[in-house]
Amino acid sequence: MAHHFARGLLVLTALGLSGCMAFSPDGGMATVSDLTSQTINKDVAFVRTAEGAEAVNATVRRLLARTLTTETAVQIALLNNKGLQATYNELALAETELVEQSLPPNPVFSISRIAGNGASEIERQVVGDILALATLPFRSDIARDRFRQAQLRAALATLRLAADVRRAYVRAVAGNDMVALLTDAKATAESTAQLAVKLGETGSINKLDQAREQVFYAETTADLATARQAATSARERLARLMGLWDGGLDFRLPDQLPPLPRRPQALPSIEADAVAHRIDLQIARLELTALAKSLNLTEATRFVTLLDLAGISRRTQDPEGPPFRERGFDVQYQIPIFDGGEVRVRQAAETYNLAFNRLTERAVNVRSEARDAYRVYRSSYDIASHYQREILPLRKIITEEMQLRFSSMQVDIFALLTEARQRLASLRGAIDAKQKFFLAQSDLQTAVNSGGTPGSGGDTSTTVAAAAPADGGH
Predict the structure, then answer these.
(1) Which of 101, 294, 322, 421 has the fewest CB atoms nearer than 10 Å to its CB?
(2) How far apart are CA 57 and CA 432, in angstroms?
(3) What whole-number distance in Å separates Cα of residue 465 and Cα of residue 298?
(4) What are phi and psi of 19, to 5 degrees?
(5) What are the pLDDT digits (tens) for 447-460?
(6) pTM exceeds 0.70
(7) Rounded to the nearest 5 degrees, what angle is found at the Cα of 158, between the Cα atoms of 156 and 159?
């Protein structure tokens, strides 16, 4: 009996092994690469060897050799950010879980010997977990869904890093533009303040006008210091996101943001696009699918959580007679007297309902986030475009006319300086409006494809252990 059981157990194990998963050569990165390429047209790399690291470093050095654009900054970050590499390591660990769940349970072999008074007894057992073998296909299917979730989470982290880099790049370049503007304004204000002091000494202007010019210089100096600090912090954040060390911190940025697009994007079906493409929503759907399968497995095994079968072979040596051999089997079965599986079934059902409600909430939020992101994008474009088409050209005309009138002595120097201050305010407003537009453009892409801004609760999927234990409840 034990011999036949052991043979049968080996056959079952062999059948189980025929459906086992194997480790992929890329650690599950194919899905991440495809999603990243389709969404933002960028390359990703999971660095696992010294040769791969050197190839990445060579690419980063080549991209850093020229003035950075938004796209090159994103590409550097996707290749060089170590936090993203750690996310890919987590994906590789998730693959180990998938392979582990697809393997049948190892049989247990035990041998014991008892001797005394010249007699001895040797017993051998082969024990197999029948319930774990029976539920192997279901557990493997659930594990595949979990691994698919891990792939989507890695893709989500990739797209969110790209969005963070775009925002940091916009802030860094806008900061440089603001510093350049205020540097020129400070030089002008300094000259004006010095002129006011000289005119005050001659009695040409009163003390009030003199103080106005001096406070404008002082305020401009303070604004310039604030702008420099903000620009430096934005540059450092961009460097962190790109994963740059000492050798790459001297990267070059353009002096100002690119011009506005000629027309804004028209997205009439943005809500449907967001629901179809949002990765965090796909993760929540897979979570619900995995929990539904776990619920079915829990209901199927609610009364049986332990079923072990052991084949036994025993050889007894008696000094008063010839040795003899005994064969048999042993079955371990848990009797559901106190717990009939109702607790596990109820837990699985409530976990599924929780995930369903979270998914429904996420779908509602996705549609709202997409609508709001598009409204902000359009309004930001309209405001920035209004500055470019209306306000700045009018300010230029006013400045030119004031200079003509000053040359013909129709206005005095203080009227001209007042206009210069107003023009400076308009230029600062234009830079700020353009920065807000490009930030809104990045947020729109994130709202449609990846899953909200970091920290906004974009990924609210429920991560709960499968309702049925991985080992079949043993």
Answers:
(1) 322
(2) 35
(3) 12
(4) -105, 15
(5) 888 765 544 444 43
(6) yes
(7) 65
